[in-house]
Design brief:
Elements: H1 4-18, E1 24-29, E2 39-41, E3 44-60, E4 67-79, H2 91-94, E5 97-98, E6 101-102, H3 103-116, E7 120-125, E8 131-138, E9 142-143, E10 147-149, E11 153-168, E12 176-180, E13 183-184, E14 189-201, E15 210-225, H4 231-242, E16 249-255, E17 263-276, E18 284-291, E19 306-312, E20 319-324, E21 328-332, E22 335-339, E23 345-348, E24 355-357, E25 362-369, E26 375-377, E27 382-384
Parallel strand pairs: 1-3
Antiparallel strand pairs: 2-3, 3-4, 4-11, 5-6, 7-8, 8-11, 9-11, 10-11, 12-13, 12-16, 14-15, 15-18, 16-17, 17-18, 19-25, 19-27, 20-23, 20-26, 21-22, 21-25, 24-25
């Protein structure tokens, strides 16, 4: 099982990477609340900001799989006076109060807040080589009153509260990559689902009904905070306010952190959107999306998308090889693809994916892309609609 010693090493290493102070380091204790005092080497003094990790709650929540939920408290002792670590520091550098505040305490709290306010997903191994996925969400550092410590003078106790989820060989939600039209979806919650259309099958002389799945349908529901950073938020708000029925979007899901994790791309449309507004809370949008028809005569596309077609000789063409001038997402012949600039990809075709146009008496294969790109296919012209 993962130990607090391992977590102490992770937190300590990451915090020290953010601490831009010469001869000053964080030191975290996992088992006993020890204190590492300053160490002198000639004119250089190595000082430490000590912290204790304490487990305040723990529970196991799975059967036959090591899975736990832990609550931790990390208690830091932050000196009110900046430690003297080099001979070049001046009296102004060592002054504990500037602009009426303990500036060094504020700076250290800022580093703690910067690090612990972000969700984290870790992969750690225990002493027996068993791998665990660890998801961490933390509260911002909370300063308390000034204490007098005999070993370091005045200090401020600063607590950080950590909730940690651990599962053996698992996947943390933070590692699930979700993109809408090629932009990360900053979801608070995301629930994809696939349901089957069932036909009941009852055999003669048997009162027990069994089922046969005739088709399946993919959909997903997400809640996101409205923001100006990710355009996926604007797409959801646009549907909420304006309706835009059957407007096509690309949804990409990567189920895991590694590049070879199971990944799929879908052509979807918004089917429902609900705003969440209350008092001074952050406005959010909860929306549902589902796979949309590939019939280009029935769907719309957002600004910046492109719809076009290849003219092909017959409905029996087995495949077409194409390339694009820039990276984009594409939907062709009933399947969504990640297309890489200059890289040829062979698209299998079926008679169903080749459309006959009665007006022009042409056979066409339609392509929807998430960007305006130049499309090339040997032997077949591409026409943008």
């Amino acid at each position: 099982m993962i130990t607090t010693v391992q977590l102490a090493r992770v937190f300590e290493t990451d915090l020290n990477a953010l601490l831009d102070y010469e001869n000053l380091s964080f030191k975290l204790w996992a088992n006993v609340g020890e204190r590492k005092r300053a160490e002198r080497d000639g004119n250089i003094v190595q000082s430490y900001i000590n912290g204790d990790i304490k487990v305040s709650a723990s529970s196991m929540t799975a059967n036959r799989l090591v899975m736990g939920v832990n609550s931790l408290t990390i208690e830091f002792d932050v000196p009110t006076e900046p430690p003297k670590t080099t001979v070049t520091q001046t009296a102004a550098d060592l002054a504990p109060v500037k602009d009426g505040q303990f500036w060094f305490v504020q700076e250290i709290i800022g580093i703690l807040s910067q690090y612990f306010q972000n969700y984290q997903a870790l992969e750690l191994q225990d002493s027996e080589g068993v791998t665990y996925a660890v998801g961490i969400v933390s509260g911002v550092a909370i300063p308390q009153g000034v204490d007098l410590n005999a070993w370091q003078g005045n200090s401020v106790p600063v607590n950080v509260y950590v909730d940690m989820n651990i599962v053996q060989g698992g996947v943390v939600s933070l590692d699930i990559g979700v993109e809408l039209d090629g932009i990360a979806l900053p979801f608070q919650s995301f629930s994809p689902d696939r349901s089957g259309v069932l036909d009941a099958v009852v055999y003669s002389g048997n009162s027990v009904s069994k089922v046969l799945t005739t088709s399946t349908a993919f959909a997903a529901e997400a809640t996101i905070p409205t923001n100006s950073v990710f355009s996926s938020s604007a797409s959801a708000v646009s549907y909420l306010l304006h309706g835009n029925p059957n407007e096509a979007h690309f949804l990409k899901i990567r189920w895991g952190a590694s590049a070879d994790s199971d990944t799929e791309v879908y052509l979807v449309t918004f089917t429902r959107a609900t705003g969440g507004l209350q008092g001074t809370s952050i406005a959010s949008v909860t929306f549902r999306i589902a796979e949309v028809t590939e019939d280009t005569e029935l769907i719309e596309v957002p600004n910046g998308f492109q719809i076009g077609y290849f003219e092909v000789p017959s409905s029996t063409l087995a495949s077409i090889m194409l390339s694009v001038s820039a990276d984009c997402l594409g939907y062709i012949a009933g399947q969504a693809y990640e297309l890489t600039a200059g890289q040829s990809v062979t698209i299998p075709l079926t008679p169903k994916s080749i459309v006959y146009d009665d007006d022009t008496e042409e056979y066409r294969v339609y392509l929807v892309t998430s960007a305006a790109v130049t499309v090339a296919a040997e032997g077949y012209a591409f026409e943008v609609l």
